[in-house]
């Protein structure tokens, strides 16, 4: 398709959504697919790209520089800025995906948050879960993909690595900086951390 036809098509789609009441800040910077579906009272900030098969519910905010493809965004969800929502992902009502977060082939249930600098892949995350900054689901061993299951009301501390296949049961806590390789039981604290060593009055070596 020629560039002029692509531009015309994008302008037609933008105009359609504007007439439907979609709020776009800088609509000329937002790119849709022909099959994009958007509900009521949705706000889209500049430089957002919609790949194929994206369905967005109502009362959703999508912040700048986010990319979505083959995903289902339910009502009252907030995404971005700088978020990547990849295929076979469902974000349920009230969930929040923040800056520099990538979600792939996962379900994020109601009112759960993945706010900062995280990768969530091949995962089922329950209701009211908080995933701390820098958390990674280690879902691939170079040959196969494995599942991470996190139940309701779990708190994942920052900079944690969850080595799949793994289950973290309800109301448990993973301490910051942990590498979790075994099942975490309900209402437990799981923590893996090397002992801190402190050398008193240490003198740094000087350059010769």
Structure description:
- The protein has one helix at residues 3-19, and strands spanning 23-24, 37-38, 43-44, 49-50, 54-56, 61-62, 67-68, 71-73, 78-79, 84-85, 89-91, 96-99, 102-104, 107-108, 113-116, 119-121, 123-125, 130-131, 136-138, 148-150, 155-156, 161-163, 166-168, 173-174, 179-180, 189-190.
- With 208 residues, the protein is mainly beta.
- The chain has a 10-stranded parallel β-sheet with strand order 1-3-6-9-12-15-18-21-24-26, with no helix packed on it. The protein has an 8-stranded parallel β-sheet with strand order 2-5-8-11-14-17-20-23, with no helix packed on it.
- The chain has one domain: Hexapeptide repeat proteins (UDP N-Acetylglucosamine Acyltransferase, domain 1), CATH 2.160.10.10.
Tell me the count of domains: 1
Helix content: under 10%
* Lateral strand order in the biggest sheet: 1-3-6-9-12-15-18-21-24-26
How many beta-strand runs? 26
- The share of residues in extended strands comes to 25-35%
Shape: globular
Mean pLDDT: 96
Low-confidence stretches: none
By secondary-structure content and strand pairing, the structural class works out as: mainly beta
The CATH architecture assignment turns out to be 3 Solenoid
Biggest β-sheet description: 10 strands, parallel
Distance between the first and last residues' Cα: 64 Å
Q: How many helices does DSSP assign? A: 1
Classified in CATH, the superfamily is Hexapeptide repeat proteins
Radius of gyration: 21 Å
Q: What is the CATH topology assignment?
A: UDP N-Acetylglucosamine Acyltransferase, domain 1
CATH uppermost class = Mainly Beta
SSE succession:
HEEEEEEEEEEEEEEEEEEEEEEEEEE
